[in-house]
Amino acid sequence: MLKTAYTLVFILMILVLSPGHVCCQTPASAPIISTEHVADLTHKREFRGVWVATVANIDWPLKPGLSTEVQKAQLIKLLDEHQKTGINAIMFQIRPVTDAYYSRGQELWSRYLTGKQGLAPDPFYDPLDFAIAEAHKRGMELHAWFNPYRATMNANEANTSPKHITRTHPSWFFTYGGMKVFNPGIPEVRKYIVGVIMNVVRNYDIDGVHFDDYFYPYKIEGINIPDESTYRLYGAGYSNIKDWRRQNVDTLIHTLSDSIHAAKYFMKFGISPFGIWKNIKQDPEGSKTDGGSSYLELYADSRKWVQKGWIDYVNPQIYWPFQHRLAPFENLLEWWGNNAYERHLYIGQAVYRAAENSQGFRERNQIPRQVRALRENPNVQGSVYFSSKSLTDNLGGVQDSLRYDLYKNKALPPQMPWLDAIPPHQPASLSARVNASKKVVLTWALPTAATDGERAYGYVVYRFNEGEEVNVNNSQNILKILFDGKETTFTDESVRPGVRYTYAVTAIDRLKNESLKSPLAVIEIK
User: Fold this and answer.
1) Widest distance between CA atoms in the chain
2) CATH superfamily of the 1-44+423-526 domain
3) Is the preceding omega at residue 272 within 30 degrees of 0, hence cis?
4) CA–CA separation, 325 vs 359, rounded Å?
5) Which of 81, 180, 335, 470 is the most buried (most CB within 10 A)?
6) With b meaning 16 or more CB within 10 Å and e meaning fewer, what string describes 370-398?
């Protein structure tokens, strides 16, 4: 990754304080050490995501039809818990079954939200707008999670409105395993799905577009996907229906990639495929596993999407433990690391299995062991956990392990230099004062525009105790991450009397490139 070298020069500011409090220059006997190392030894850059599933009310809201106030309160509580745990990205499911958790779109309100498909929240609010704002307040990215092809969870038409697209365009769907699924081989279907997603990209302040593992449906033994007539109509040039199906999915992914990045250069596009691409017995380039595969069974060539650079991150669901008989975690971690192709790799981890009495998960340190293992692989940039409720319920003690050990320090998402490698300019000044409540109030100046015209999207506030090195690459010194480029003040409420503190502030842009640090501010609370 591209990283701008930091300056070793710092400026000590003499600050004017309220009566009774003194601002001190650092005495010669206690010099400030400024050594900003490049190595990320404290995991300052790490993607720490969690899936918030709305289908069937898995995570939020806890049941359909709750009042707006209760829904908001539940979501705030959920986000507060994840913030305490160190999570910095929310994968928020906004289209579980060709429906919507947002207002500015063409699809109907979800029945999982209001109890009836097509019924708006009352009093009205937009859950996606609300979730974005609340996530950003907490220094978390929000990635809009779409299920592109799933249209219903079952064949019960009482659950779908007469205005639902399965009723208005029935020829676009086939039924498989009791569910209605978009037929990916129909060009109008692909155009419609791209339009739905791009509507959200253009109209909402999301940080990314996210798909999970549902493409063509998971195979049911003895039942064929009923798309032979579509293949005869559109499959000219393909020697078999399987290659044609894969091409249909490839076309959607490639088209979306181009469309998303053309609309907003900073928008991330990521996919969370089934954990096995192909097994080595099926392809010498496959993984040392012996299970189902996304390539052969879901017609999802996830490796190709990374190779071609169509997606910015791949997030394989490696939901098995170490030394699993068919799909060992360690083998899949190594395989995906070797096939990341300089895009980001986040490992999907199965917190929902953490309390199982099954092979591997009987060891209650299984998930923490996995986090430590992926941190040892230089091609892995983080984790995403399924699902929110499993984490907040602290299954297997995973939340405790993250909150009090692995994620005890805050982290920024890793940079994506292929989208933007230009850091913002740093705040030009920094001052500190002690207010009447004996808290430290920091104030800084808005940075000037960088060479690409970008101004600050947010800031990172650092605090150093007396005698500590001023090293903004050490995540234990991060006090606050702010996603508000217009906010130029912060109050540190965790200070103690009789202690001298040194502060620095950096600016971040939309893709979390970070500026040089501001001049330092030194203060002692009397």
Assistant:
1) 84
2) Immunoglobulins (2.60.40.10)
3) no
4) 9
5) 180
6) bbebbeebebbbbbbbbbbbbbbebbbeb
pLDDT tens by residue, 413-457 = 999 999 999 999 999 999 999 999 999 999 999 999 999 999 999
For all residues of the chain together, what is the average pLDDT? 92
Specify the DSSP element, H or E, that contains 444. Answer: strand 440-444
Strands 520-524 and 12-13: parallel
Residues in CB range of 69: below 8 A, 6 or more apart: none
Nearest Cα residue to 47 out of 144, 146, 147, 140: 140
User: Tokens in use for 378?
Assistant: 């230089």
**What's the pLDDT tens digit per position in 81-109?**
999 999 999 999 999 999 999 999 999 99
Q: Quote the percentage of the chain above a pLDDT of 90.
A: 90
pLDDT at 270: 98
Annotated domain spans of the chain: 1-44+423-526, 47-150+207-406
Question: Rounded to whole angstroms, how far apart are CA atoms 343 and 313?
Answer: 6
Neighbours of 239 (CB within 10 A): 8
Q: Choose between 154 and 481: higher pLDDT.
A: 481
Q: From residue 101, how far is each of 141, 144, 208, 417, 522 by CA, in Å?
A: 18, 10, 16, 32, 47
- pTM across the whole model: 0.92
